[in-house]
Amino acid sequence: MKHKTFLWFILPSAVAMLLFIALPVVSVLLQSVFAPHEQVIREVEKCDVFGCKKSTTVDVEATAALSEGAPLGRFVGTAIYTDRNHLALSEIGAIWSSSKGPGDFLDQIFNLPFYGALAFTLTYTALVTPFAILLGFCIALAVNAIPRLLRGPAIFFSLLPMIVTPLVGALILFWMVDARGILGVALQSLAGDPDLSVKASTPLMWAMLIVYGVWSSCPFAFVVYYAGLQTVPQDTLESAMIDGATRWQRLRYVIIPHLLPLTTFLVLIKIMDNFRVFEPIVSFNGGAHAQSLSYFIYADLTATNKLLSSAAATSVLTILGVIVLLSPVIVRTRRSFARAAS
Amino acid sequence: MTMSIRGLALSALWGTTALAGAANADCGIAAGKVSIIGNDFPAVHTVADAAAACGTGTVGVKTNLTKDHEKLNAPGMTANPAEYSAAIISSSSLVTLMSAGLVRPLDDLIAAHGADIPRNQMVTIDGKVMAVAFMANAQHMFYRKDLLDAAGVAPPKTYEELLAAAGKVRDGGTASPFCSTYGVGWNLGQEFVNMYLGMGGAFFKPGTAEPAINNEKGVAALEMMKALSGYMNPDFLTFDSNAVTAEWEAGNCAIATLWGSRAGVLMDGKESAPGVAENTMAVATPSAGGSSFPATTLWWDGWSIATNVSDEDAAASFLAMKAGIAPSILTPDTMGQAVWMIEGYQPTPAAQGVAESIAGGAPSYPMEPYMGAMHMAADGNIADFLTGKEDAATALADIEAAYTAAAKEGGFLK
Amino acid sequence: MTSSVAGHRSLPLQALLAGFLILWIVVAAFPFFWTLWGSFKVEGDFFSRADWANALTGPMTRAETGGAFTGQGYYGAWITNEFWRAGLNTLIVVVSVVTISLAFGTLGGYALARSGHRYVFWILMIALVFRAMPHLTLVSGYLLPFFQWNLWGHLPTAIIVLVAINQPFTLWMLTSFFQNIPKDLDESAMVDGCSRFQAFRLVIIPVMWPGVITTGLFSFLLAYNDFAVTAMLLDQQNQTMIPRIASFLGTTQTKGNVMFAVSAVVSATAPLFLLVMVFQRQIVSGLTAGAVKG
Predict the structure, then answer these.
(1) Cα distance between residue A18 and residue B393, in whole Å
(2) What DSSP state is assigned to residue B335?
(3) What number of other Cβ atoms are within 10 A of residue A241's Cβ?
(4) Neighbours of A98 (CB within 10 A)
(5) What is the pLDDT of residue B27?
(6) How far is it, in rounded angstroms, from Cα C121 to Cα A7?
(7) What are the beta bridge partners of residue B61?
(8) What SS3 class is residue B258?
(9) DSSP line for A124-169
(10) Contacts of B390 in chain A (CB under 8 A)
(11) A91, A174, A293, A304: which to substitute to probe chain B, counting the most B Cβ within 10 Å?
């Protein structure tokens, strides 16, 4: 295709992305290396309806004078990236020299917010991604095998975990797994422990978040695979059958290779989505037991003292994390592109 | 006199229309644009509706009442001209707007148009009026009269007594007698603020943003929270106000600390198990650590006017908001919506807890510009202590470290 | 064709597949049916702290309303709180987002699938990095400029933002679909004298529906269920369903009405059922038709 034709075709999409994603990305990069100016603090008397007391306030004029001519703020370089609430480099150094052994060292590292969150985020991503994709694949195979008339309802019901807004879906599930909810009681009788509470223990909370993650994201894999299954070349399948291939062999040598590009796509998307997990943590009030990088971004942006630079730095670290995780897939894709081009 | 519901609704409609017609003249606004942002709950709706009644052909009044108001008000008022000419704010969100210079001193406007606003409603910072308050709120104690009587204990006046009382109620068969909002996200930080200030602690070295919580009072506050958690439902780290409300209504709690603004719901008998609502008492928060005042923080809700609007719009907004909190908004319907700080307010029994906490001399929520960072640092680092993963001193050190990093970023600390 | 393959399945295997599917559908749909049932109860029963079985028997619903079922939640959401306004806004947003996303995406995806130049890989990679950006960060970055330029609060703003945020995904998905459509189809049309765009319009559009419908389904769900963008970028009167449902849930200080939210969610799912029923035929028939040529 000619460059010019290509440009016209891609233009609307590119403009939308440049304006609403690329520009914000640039501003996020800037924001992560610039922090707010030094605030001039003044001691004052504050009186409200309940009485007066000594307090402090920001001297707006003096602070504005300080920030004259530097609208971006104060350049701090990588200071935000390396501070205690992010990569915590100097804290790690201190822990390294003071720790009493590898166990203690790891304990102290995971007590740092970033690494604690990273541990959960990586566990979540590593478990939810393969299980959701595998489960989605099995559902697609099963739905594809039932009579056509039943497929519509089967598709709809399989999509339900994805359709019902997490806002309320998670609220209801959160209630169902309560120690007195229907699923919580079922779990208690299964485990034979009447005091079992999913919400009170860290391992169970992790397990619940991961199960919820698989449950809510496998419909996506299902739909993609289901669409893919419809395009499996029938003549190849039939000739394989004539050659006496077993069902398993057909699955292994015809269907799975055909769905491989879709699998690559699913792995890319799911790793990315799972690495950014935060909605279930918020809906399940799980912040005491599990945190993720995106949860910190959410906390920074919704706090009274908004930490925009911190949120920007965490966002950049999230993107870098995604790139690192995806790099094997990206390298593979690049090779296949090179092959296609040659 | 009997009146059908429909008739009542119609007359109410006529009433508001007539009122609105009268209010147009009463607001005294010649021209201007008014745009109000605020939270989304009934009391704020009442105020915003009364302000919106000032709208005429030449005066446009818009309102945007949303739970996300704290995320929207600062950017909306940074724009010039500002999207919002008036913001309904609370103790903590005023500070954010003020630190960025987004709200204007109201002294000139009060001199010109607001002579009748009572002095005690004004929030004055460094001698300048920055906001006008209209309602108060606080987390305070609720207790079940029947359960405490059955256990033979008097309503506790201190947290130490509360622990003993909770123990006795538990012996009587209530498994988790104490309920409180210990959920991580914001609530847990708020509980620590209440307890630590209640013990007489101070968050910062005077006049600076240096943290000062890693001390005996900090340890005592955390230890008290842990002792209380022993009487709570094992899921306490996920409990928000909705969870505590539901627990209370189901009759699972004997004592609770919860927002005063939820007292009406706990006492109205709707959705409650039999015998719960009529035995629900709202009183002052207990004191802690030998202090003489309730271990809670007082909150107010009020309004401010934006800096980045024309003087005409500012005056129009001021007059509209003044009409929004006029004594005439208090009707039998709205009286129970909040603990109003407006003349003519008749406290309901549900307001007693807030009133007693105010009378007891509880401190107001700290208004240092960096308090929000401290609140969130505390919120994020206490759970590890409560679940037994680390000791109190480590938790306090973690809070200070997390706060320091945030305050350095914000330019409050070097 | 697929059914003919299914016809050869041995009985145990069919039983295994059916059993698995039934188990899955129970797991997937049970919470929804529980919610559907509970939406006709009062909050004290559906979220009962005494006994979960109250949600089934409904003692408080009986005590408060006199019947075993109540429509209070639906009445409160739809009539008292005018939830239909939010539904209307959602309809506008969803239809616009899906249409624009697919229009932009098919053009771009087609070009990416057919170009063969080295930069295609990099464009796709950059799109991927764009997609990695947490939405919350993006949205909080929009606020100030949108307020400054008076773009904030309007439906078109939210629509175009959702389209842009959704573009990387749409491009990736459609590119992989177009790669499966054989090149000779449009190239032979161009040999016959069509321009590139004519070839796209006359030859490719007719066979691309399956991929487009699947992609459209995801655009639809993204726009339909979006909370981050619509809650932060829309004014109160332009609110869509999800932020409206969130507002039923109350604040820290005041109690909301959870049953309004539950009823609203249940009733918002009904149109989706119809939608999936209509389009599942399209997915199957369209895709199979396209696949025959592959």
Answers:
(1) 49
(2) G
(3) 16
(4) 10
(5) 86
(6) 15
(7) B34
(8) strand
(9) HHHHHHHHHHHHHHHHHHHHHTS-HHHHHHHHHHHHHHHHS-HHHH
(10) 111
(11) A304
- What count of other Cβ atoms lies within 10 Å of the Cβ of residue B120? 12
CA pair distance A322, C46, nearest whole angstrom: 40
Nearest to A288 among B341, B383, B401 (CB): B383
ipTM score assigned to the predicted complex: 0.92
DSSP, collapsed to helix, strand or coil, labels residue A35 as strand
pLDDT, residue B287, reads 97
User: Which structure tokens are listed for B57?
Assistant: 């052909």
C282 near C213, Cβ under 8 Å? yes
| Torsion angle, alpha carbons of C234, C240, C242, C247, to 10 | 70
Question: pLDDT value at position C283?
Answer: 61
Chain A positions touching C225 (Cβ under 8 A) are 163, 165-166
Mapped onto helix, strand or coil, the DSSP state of residue C116 is coil
Q: What pLDDT is attached to residue A265? A: 85
Place of tokens 């200070």: B400
Q: Are C174 and C106 in contact (CB under 8 A)?
A: yes
B383/A179 touch (CB, cutoff 8 Å), yes or no: no
Mean pLDDT of chain B: 91
Query: Band of the pLDDT at A342, cuts 50, 70, 90?
Result: low
What CA–CA distance (Å, rounded) separates B399 from B389? 15
Tokens 């804290």, residue located: A91
Nearest alpha-carbon partner for A138 in A222, A247, A211, A212: A222
From the list C38, C37, C43, the residue with the least C-alpha distance to C60 is C43
Q: How far apart are CA A140 and CA A155, in angstroms?
A: 9
CB contact (8 A) between residue C140 and residue A308: yes
Encode pLDDT of A154-198 as tens digits: 988 998 998 888 877 888 888 888 888 899 999 999 998 888 889
Phi, psi of C8 (to 5 degrees): -85, -5
Do residues B99 and A31 make contact, with C-beta atoms less than 8 angstroms apart? no
- Determine if residue C74 is left, alpha or beta; phi over 0 gives left, psi from -120 to 50 gives alpha, anything else beta: alpha
* Cis bond before residue A328 (omega within 30° of 0): no
State how far the alpha carbon of C87 is from the alpha carbons of A189, B204, C29, C232, in Å.
42, 49, 23, 18
Q: Does C149 touch chain A (CB under 8 A)?
A: no
Residue A171's closest CA among B355, B41, B259, C259? C259
